[in-house]
Design a protein that fits this description.
373 residues; alpha/beta; Rossmann fold; 2 domains; 13 helices; 14 strands
């Protein structure tokens, strides 16, 4: 184990190198750009044994990623905001083609108007593309989760997106631990491929299908996505056993033992909420934090298992679900608990969109006012 000092984007690039990735198609976009800069420099110097492919845009980046993955390569790419939206068409192709690509999305608000800072509107716009989504709350978790994402994606043959807030985490410099390469290789062996494109044995994939085949393939993707919940837990447990590091699996709980009010959130705000919970506890409020780490598939059973009876849940959202009565995370939780937990009252606060500065004091006050109101 060694300790490094670096940003969130440096943690990603380090994890990609350690994962022995074969191909990295890339295109720059703020605040993701430095991921591709780090990786291209390592590929150019020979420090990283991978093929870096500079392309003309994000649509091409994902198209190249799909093609490379179809040849049996371990593939990584990254994007943000409008770049992720530009990939949208090919994201469906990657999921439908069952290509285990790993992509980091550094969250940033989408236009109009232009904004460089973070909210979750870019990844929420991709929640039904068939990709798995993991959301990180710290730089150490970014490194760990990037490695775990390769394990998960290649186990279920579904592309996986690792998400974290732009600038708050991408450009923040902190220490993070890196396991030995021997430990990483033990956790993440070479990709095991049972089918791949081979010029010596020509074939094709993702062609036009019959209606019946289309229905069956969509159903299979849906069912396998739900099964990925167990693989996410397996990856977290196996990573912890080998490296001694753990960030939770589908969820992470904080001071939930006697909570009457539960704050539900994900991303960097969830990390800051630890301070909010401590302040509210000091003021006599029995409150706990339930941080969502896995957004797709949505771990309904795990959430229900830890929600106290007759509790109040305050959702801190970082993206609107336009045309509904709250944010995107709020809608997901309401849907999951509908008909299952009528004892739980759910409230919503949309905060921090577009990079709005939200402190632990602000969130503590908002939680208290919401419950009391």
């Amino acid at each position: 184990m060694k300790k490094m000092i670096g940003t969130g984007t440096k943690a990603v690039a380090t994890a990609v190198k350690c994962a022995n990735v074969d191909v990295v198609p890339g295109y720059p976009i703020t605040p993701q750009t430095s991921i591709m800069e780090y990786i291209s420099e390592m590929c150019d110097s020979g420090e990283m044994n991978a093929k870096f492919i500079p392309v003309e845009g994000e649509h091409s980046a994902m198209a190249a990623a799909v093609a490379a993955s179809a040849t049996g390569a371990r593939v990584f790419t990254a994007s943000s905001s409008q770049g992720l939206l530009y990939m949208h068409e090919v994201l469906h192709m990657a999921a439908g083609g069952r290509m285990p690509i790993v992509m980091v999305n550094v969250n940033r608000g989408v236009f109009a108007p232009w904004i460089l800072y973070a909210d979750h509107s870019d990844t929420m716009a991709q929640r039904d593309t068939g990709w798995l989504q993991l959301h990180c709350a710290s730089i150490q978790e970014i490194f760990n989760t990037t490695l775990q994402a390769f394990y998960i994606a290649e186990k279920v043959n579904i592309p996986t997106m690792v998400c974290f807030d732009g600038f708050t985490l991408s450009h923040c410099t902190m220490a993070f631990d890196v396991p030995t390469q021997k430990q990483i290789n033990q956790f993440l062996p070479a990709r095991d491929v049972d089918w791949f494109l081979d010029v010596k044995h020509p074939s094709s994939f993702s062609n036009i299908s019959s209606v019946d085949a289309y229905v069956d393939l969509r159903k299979q993707l849906h069912e396998d996505t739900l099964k990925a919940i167990d693989v996410v837990k397996e990856a977290a447990s196996r990573y912890s056993d080998i490296t001694g590091m753990c960030n939770g699996d589908t969820i992470e709980c904080y001071r939930m033992e006697d909570a009457e009010t539960v704050v539900f959130a994900m991303g960097s705000l969830a990390d800051e909420l630890h301070l909010s919970i401590d302040r509210l506890r000091a003021n006599g409020m029995k409150v706990g934090l339930l941080r969502l780490r896995l957004f797709r598939p949505f771990p309904k059973e795990d959430i229900m298992a830890v929600l106290p009876e007759n509790s109040k849940v305050v959702v801190i959202d970082k993206a609107y679900a336009y045309g509904t009565d709250g944010g995107a995370l709020y809608q997901e939780l309401k849907s999951a608990l509908y008909g299952e937990r009528s004892d739980v009252e759910i409230y919503d606060k949309v905060m921090g969109i577009g990079g709005q500065d939200v402190t632990w004091e602000t969130m503590a006050d908002a939680i208290s006012e919401t419950v009391e109101g």
